[in-house]
Amino acid sequence: QVQLVESGGGLVQAGGSLRLSCAVSGRTFDTMGWFRQAPGEEREFVAAIAWSTYYADSLKGRFAISRDNAKNTVYLQMNSLKPEDTAVYYCAARMGALTTIRHDFAYWGQGTQVTVSS
Asked: Which residues contact 75 (CB under 8 A, 6 or more apart)?
């Protein structure tokens, strides 16, 4: 049974940092991604990692995705956080090439709340 479990969310002041983790069990995946969803908004792409990495344009330079294959875990380091980064962050997984398309990811975690205060 495949499970993706996120952790590391919380409340942080603007300018601060958080590191999210996503522990995967059940199998390994070619591509891992992070998405986020703010209240009343669509779920949007944040970052993905396969043999390379890809970021949403607006987040380049502040967010970094990485993975530890030995632990089957993917991370999202978030720096210089802004109130507009407030959202539920979801980990996602798929077999196949890197993509930014939400519907291409077959497996999802339950999400972790990130709140950035001004």
From this structure: 19, 20, 21, 22, 65, 66, 67, 68
Residue 107 banded pLDDT, cuts 50, 70, 90:
very high
Distance between CA atoms of 90 and 35, rounded to whole angstroms?
A: 5
First to last CA, the chain: 40
Tens of pLDDT, residues 16-73? 999 999 999 999 999 999 999 999 999 999 999 999 999 999 999 999 999 999 999 9
Which residues on adjacent β-strands are paired with residue 65? 76
